[in-house]
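chain below, 303 aa
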Amino acid sequence: MLTWVQYRAHLSRVTLRQHGAGPEIRGCESHHLDVRFPQYEEFWRHHIVPCTNRPTNIYFRDGLSPVMERIACVNFGIWNDLVHACDLIARVKQGEFGYDYRNCIDAMKCGGDAIQKFADLQEIVTGRKNDGNPSRRTSLAGCLATGITVFTRQDKLVSEAWRKTNSAYRHQLTHDSPLAVFIDGSTGTKKHLILKPEHVAHKNAVSWRDLASQYRSNQARWDRIETVCDELNANTVDWLNTVYGKLNAAMHRLWRGASYIALFGVPPTRLPVDTTTISRRSFPSESITGVTCVQEARLITTD
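prediction:
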């Protein structure tokens, strides 16, 4: 009989690039997100893979607890948002801004959605909302009857300061009013410019006339829209990698308890990887590659 201890000893051999779901593999191959966001893979490897029937298939294991299913779905949603953002930014960097800068705006929104989903993930794990108040949702901490602390007080202050500034910038660009872009053709090549994040007054509404005045008085505060989108996304990935590192530190400890392991459902009968032939073909992710996010979410939550 295979034990969970034996199973976990082989988790280091499972990789997103080879054994992930369709969008996870594509995020690695097209955007190198496994390299840029290694803490996601670490979380996925130790807390999502055991929820599934790998190496037989990527579907959820019989008896998987609802709270672990929810964690897996929200975690997958964060990755999906980043893949969408990266897809759009690749177009923007090729000059494909979309009608009325739609690709730029949607890329920013996707990154913002990923940040919000992490707050949801943290709430499901700890049983507390982002503001520290108790959640009404069923939580992992509640199921285990134990406290789970992801952030120290100082970590929380630093993380929240970045998140609020970043979210306020995205909100002002994508929600408060149509995106204000100035087109500079003075060098012969059109440059589409927007105000840099550090020069946005988040607490005050800014009119287009105010922005025009700022542009005329100090053009150094403006940058190409493709550069701002790319840097904003890179900063988002870096932030998520940092907070996932904190999440991993909190959740890896849970493997010491039988109560957490029991949430994965029926015990494994096989190791998580085929130890004789470790290849992408060993995992039937091809069967869902290319389907939409909604379809894939449905597939991975049904047996």
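The first strand starts at residue 182 and ends at 184. DSSP finds 13 helices and three strands in the chain.
thats it, cya
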